[in-house]
Amino acid sequence: MTGLPLLITGGTGLLGLHWAAARRETQPVTLALHRRRIALPGTTARPLNLADPHDLDAAMTEDRIACIIHTAGLTSVERCEQDPEAAHHHNVTLAATVAAAAERAGAALIHISTDHLFDGRADLYDEDSPATPVNVYGQTKARAEEAVLRAHPRALVLRTNFYGWGPSHRPSFSDWLLTSLRQDRPLRLFTDMRYTPTHITPLIEAAMALSAKGASGIVNAVGDEALSKHAFGLRLADHFGLSPARIEPARLADQPDLVRRPLSMALSTRRLHALLGHGLGGIDAHLDLLRAQEETPAITEIRSL
Ligand SMILES: NC(=O)c1ccc[n+]([C@@H]2O[C@H](COP(=O)([O-])OP(=O)(O)OC[C@H]3O[C@@H](n4cnc5c(N)ncnc54)[C@H](OP(=O)(O)O)[C@@H]3O)[C@@H](O)[C@H]2O)c1
Predict the structure, then answer these.
(1) Which domains are seen in the chain, by residue range?
(2) CB of 164 shorter than 6 A to ligand 1
(3) Which end of the chain is more exposed for a tag (fewer CB within 10 A), N or C?
(4) Global pTM?
(5) Ligand 1 nearest-atom number relative to CA 9
(6) Ligand 1 centre and the CA of 70: distance in Å?
(7) Rounded to an integer, what distance in angstroms lies between the CA atom of residue 17 and that of residue 71?
(8) Dist. CA 46–CA 69, nearest whole Å
(9) Torsion angle defined by CA atoms of residues 209, 214, 219 and 225, in that order, rounded to the nearest 10 degrees
(10) C-alpha 8: how far from its chain's center?
(11) H helix or E strand, kind and range, residue 113
């Protein structure tokens, strides 16, 4: 193993677990744990209080961390809206504390942001589009980007939206769709909400490639195609040979009781293409990959956690 040691916060989350599984044969991986306790073979699990700079400094020194991947956060839009103070603590304060620890240690930082930063009136947002969040989750993620780049000016901030096979305690959007389709349960998916999702594996590969090139600042790291959630559901059903009959069209604009969400979250990948020489790929390639991964040992391991 030749790679430099990685610390992944949010080690039990969807992205954190995939990142650890993808890198554990290449570089030492420390998984920072919060409430949930898990063991992923080939990695070191470490309970870590991300609000405590001393705890962070000790981890950085003892595990000789060269790069932090900060995925931890409060990711439920509903919970953020119900408790804005907790959302600010989890998404802004912890991100800033982690960024400052990486900077003190001279370590690189990849901070995971979101596509949920805009009011949804534009067709496509690039990295220079001013943040115009419409809910507490988006507000805290926008403030986190600023706080992270203030504390660690060389940080790489990735705006993204991903899916993949999740652990049993954290089903992803594609897990939810597949379970519903396979159990013949009705699904209502929005036709008026556009986004640019990516499979989680090309996202992680691109992030490591960008970091190796020394890329910094904000980069949109999403798939090549924009589509609605409804269209995504139909494409997924098709790739898995499942009937789309139970997928019903719905409109986000007709859901007054939901926490307000942007109608467009689609991100431009022009900067990503310029930096990498390629994008993350389109929906068909990603859904083929999702299907091919289902029975692989690494995915079976993640799904059983
Ligand atoms: N999922 C998506 O499609 C998506 C889209 C756009 C952006 N993102 C961003 O991508 C990142 C990762 O998302 P995800 O879906 O992988 O997250 P997730 O599955 O919801 O996992 C969140 C992780 O954060 C940890 N955590 C929560 N509070 C913590 C605290 N106070 N201290 C330390 N750790 C804490 C959780 O640990 P416990 O469970 O032990 O509390 C869990 O491991 C987030 O920053 C999210 O905003 C996600």
Answers:
(1) 6-171+196-225+265-282 (3.40.50.720)
(2) no
(3) N
(4) 0.98
(5) 34
(6) 9
(7) 10
(8) 14
(9) -20
(10) 12
(11) strand 108-114
